[in-house]
Amino acid sequence: MTDDAGAGTGSGADGSGGAAASGGGRVRQLRLVVEAEDFEAALAFFRDVLGMPEQEAYSGEGGAEVRILDAGRATLELSNPAQVRFIDRVETDGGRSDRIRVALEVDDAAAVTDDLVAAGAELEASARETPWRSVNGRVRAPAGLQLTIFQELD
Fold first, then answer.
1. What is the pLDDT of residue 149?
2. Largest Cα–Cα distance of the chain, in whole Å?
3. Along the chain (154 residues), what's the average pLDDT of each consecutive run of 10 residues?
4. 127 lies in which domain range?
5. d(CA 67, CA 59)
6. pLDDT tens track for 5-42
7. Is residue 1 part of a domain?
8. Do the domain assignments include residue 141?
9. Is there a domain that residue 25 lies in?
């Protein structure tokens, strides 16, 4: 069963029964863990180029390294295959989404997309306006991560 907005089940506007809005949901944080073969390059890209501040850093035996970067607010966007195909038609020139794609909201999607390409990301789709009133660009970042860079217009 979905609410009138089609967002999900529950009585809250976000489909959570109101728990998420008050911070009372069961999940406290979404953390995306990415294995990066070229750790230093990936760290420089996400921390220095994208501007994600370093929150924590840990080193372990055998050269083990991890950095936890602040990426702002996290959400989980679940899409069925038809929606993914629609997104791909709108956001790209025929490119296909990876099964997991990371979307990052920024203030200026076109400028950030250009900056990421200048820093070594592979351009998959230039920034363009979508029917849902956002500007979206897509790049392939270090560690092979597919990124959608988006800017909300409303």
1. 97
2. 53
3. 36 44 78 96 97 96 96 94 94 91 97 98 97 96 96 95
4. 81-152
5. 9
6. 333 334 344 444 444 455 678 988 899 999 999 999 99
7. no
8. yes
9. no
pTM: 0.80
**Long-range contacts (CB closer than 8 Å, 24 or more residues apart) made by 85-93:** 90/130, 90/131, 90/136, 91/125, 91/128, 91/130, 91/136, 91/138, 91/148, 92/124, 92/125, 92/138, 93/125
The CATH number assigned to the domain holding 109 equals 3.10.180.10
Q: Are 2 and 8 in contact (CB under 8 A)?
A: yes
**Cβ-proximal residues to 37 (8 Å cutoff; 6+ apart), any chain:** 143
Are 90 and 134 in contact by the 8 Å Cβ rule? The answer is no
Task: Answer whether residue 87 is part of any domain.
Answer: yes
